Amino acid sequence: MLSAIERYRAHSREYSSSTKMEQDIEGGEYEASWMSTRIELIEASKQKLLGKNLGSCSLDELHELEGKLEESLHSIRERKASQNRASFISVKLSIKKKHLPLVHSFQYHLLREQIAQLKEKVDYLNSVVC
């Protein structure tokens, strides 16, 4: 009796594992077919965006394509403007860092001259008052 149960269990496992494999294979085949169809659609869309094979497009499809291209162009221009702003700010900061010591040095010399002139005035006023 035990050997019959063991044979049943072994046969049952083999059957369920082979059924599972068949289901996995069928699922994989379906997924591969679906992915292949999806790739073909994406390729066709890419060709249309590149301006190829437009003869089969309806007027509505062409308007939709034009809208997508305008959106893409707007997005590209926005990104480029943002990069240009960032680059400009970076260059501006770089210039400030390079020239800031010169500006401080120039201001320092101007202030030293003003102090010297004020000292001369104070000395003159002290000599006149005393």
TrEMBL record:
GO terms for molecular function: DNA-binding transcription factor activity. PROSITE patterns: K_BOX. Residues 25-128 form the K-box domain. It holds the Pfam family K-box. InterPro entries: TF_Kbox. GO terms for cellular component: nucleus. This is K-box domain-containing protein.
